[in-house]
């Protein structure tokens, strides 16, 4: 599918439906990046549906606490929990997953929303370019470490959990260069200082990581046995007012300022799409398995993703990501071996 600029404008001007509602009594909901923007607004919507547990996963204790207080003030829901996680630190991700397992490990809805946008190469303490680690590697690591909890929940409570990874319609506007796709260490290549500081690599970094989110969901779903009671999908919130672009400067900041006023949704409107991906199609949830969701509907992914080169890139990103993450935490390969199957 091709997605032109005018298609983008038309979609942004369409009337948006109200938030999808469901009864979440007894369910556990986890939202990453829950203290601000679409993450916080999605959390507010979930809070109105009486979840048994609602976990706000945030990097900052002070901002997370402020979000808890605002959530209660706005919705009356007083049972929300604040859990701290720093996606720029693999150890923090592991500690979060370990705490979740010790805590009982029931998980019905996991919205992996957190992301950063930067045009400057800045490595994390783990040595990875920061947005690649936060937007792709750490989200993938956390999703895989929590996978057993979601499957356990489904089998012990006869439910159908959902993992929703927030990607972006911007994935339509990027392709990975053929020389990079020919390299088996594709993630290591695009994460290297040499690659990041050459040409327009960092200017396109956010878009590339969102493409990787689409790859991850498709690759994971392809390897989940059809009998596994788990729905994995990815969703675009659309173009919203967001702190994600707060570091823009110069002409880019001016252009974004003007585009926001002409086209952007509020964060609340964008969050409705996250909620839809997590709750919609209650009678036919299998329809959402492995799908890319935008504008409250299943959409075809980009032509590049569907191309032979895109399929090759998807497999390489999956394999290289697993190799990287298994060195961080050997449980990754154990989980893959136990719960997933090889593709043809």
Automatic annotation (TrEMBL):
Q: What SUPFAM superfamilies does its record include?
A: NAD(P)-binding Rossmann-fold domains
| Keywords for the protein's UniProt record, in alphabetical order | Oxidoreductase
Has UniProt tagged this entry with the keyword 4Fe-4S? no
Offer an example of a GO molecular function term for this protein.
Answer: oxidoreductase activity
Under the heading InterPro entries, the entry gives: NAD(P)-bd_dom_sf, SDR_fam
- One Pfam family matching this protein: adh_short
Please state the span of the N-terminal signal peptide per the UniProt entry: none
Coiled coil ranges (UniProt) are none
Bilayer-crossing regions: none
Q: What protein is this chain from?
A: NAD(P)-binding protein
């Amino acid at each position: 599918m091709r997605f032109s600029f005018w298609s983008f404008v038309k979609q942004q001007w369409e009337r948006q439906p109200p938030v999808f509602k469901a009864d979440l009594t007894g369910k556990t909901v986890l939202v990453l990046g829950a203290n601000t923007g679409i993450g916080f607004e999605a959390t507010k919507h979930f809070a109105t549906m009486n979840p048994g547990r609602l976990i706000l996963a945030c990097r900052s204790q002070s901002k997370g606490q402020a979000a808890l207080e605002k959530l209660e003030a706005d919705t009356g829901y007083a049972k929300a929990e604040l859990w701290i996680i720093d996606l720029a630190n693999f150890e923090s991700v592991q500690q979060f997953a370990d705490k979740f397992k010790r805590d009982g490990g029931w998980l019905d809805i996991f919205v992996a929303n957190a992301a950063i946008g930067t045009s400057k190469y800045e490595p994390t303490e783990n040595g990875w370019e920061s947005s690649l680690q936060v937007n792709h590697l750490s989200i993938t690591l956390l999703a895989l470490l929590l996978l057993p909890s979601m499957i356990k929940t489904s089998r012990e409570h006869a439910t159908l959990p959902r993992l929703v990874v927030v990607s972006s319609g911007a994935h339509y506007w990027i392709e990975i260069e053929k020389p990079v796709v020919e390299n088996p260490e594709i993630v290591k290549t695009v994460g290297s200082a040499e690659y990041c500081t050459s040409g327009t690599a960092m200017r396109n970094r956010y878009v590339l990581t969102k493409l990787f989110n689409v790859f991850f969901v498709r690759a994971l779903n392809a390897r989940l046995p059809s009998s596994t009671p788990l729905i994995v999908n990815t969703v675009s919130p659309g173009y919203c007012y967001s702190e994600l672009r707060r570091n823009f400067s110069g002409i880019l900041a001016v252009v974004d300022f003007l585009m926001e006023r002409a086209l952007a949704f509020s964060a609340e409107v964008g969050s409705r799409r996250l909620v839809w991906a997590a709750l919609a199609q209650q009678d036919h949830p299998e329809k959402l398995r492995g799908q890319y969701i935008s504008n409250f509907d299943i959409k075809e992914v980009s032509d590049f993703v569907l191309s032979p080169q895109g399929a090759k890139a998807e497999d390489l990103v999956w394999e290289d990501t697993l190799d990287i993450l298994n060195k961080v935490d050997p449980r990754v390969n154990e989980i893959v071996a136990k719960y997933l199957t090889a593709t043809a």
